[in-house]
Amino acid sequence: MEPIAVDQNIDRLRQALEHNTRILERRNKLDGDWRVLLWRGLLVGFGGVIGATLVVSIAIKLIQPFESFEGLKPTLERLTDELKRN
Predict the structure, then answer these.
(1) How far is CA 82 from CA 12, 25, 65, 73, in A?
(2) Same domain membership, residue 27 and residue 37
(3) What is the pLDDT of residues 37-63, one digit of tens each?
C-alpha cells in the first residue's frame, strides 16, 4: 500500500471516529439522568406486560363463541386452554 493511501485511510477513520463520538455525546445529553432511564425502562416493561395480557384476554373472548362449532371445537378448546394457562 502506498503511504498516501494509508494516510487517507487514517484520515477517514479519524473522521468516522469523531462523527461517532459526536453522536454518542448528543445521545448522552438526551438520555440524561440514570434514574430517568430506570423509570422509563420500568414503565416500558410494565406497559408491555399489561398490553400482552390485554391481547391474550381479548383473543380468548373472541375465540370462545366459535367453540360451539363441532368441527372447530377440539382445536379451539385446546387453544383457549393454552392461552388461559400461559
Answers:
(1) 56, 48, 16, 14
(2) no
(3) 888 899 999 999 999 999 989 988 888
Number of folded domains in the chain?
2
Distance CA 19, CA 31 (A): 19
Report, as an integer, the average pLDDT of 56-80. 83
Query: Taking the model in full, what pTM does it have?
Result: 0.50
Output the CA–CA distances (angstroms, integers) from residue 2 to 6, 7, 12, in the order listed: 6, 9, 16
Q: Which three cell numbers stand for residue 8?
A: 487517507
CB neighbour list of residue 72: distance below 8 Å, 6 or more residues apart: 66
Name the residue with higher pLDDT: 32 or 83.
Answer: 83
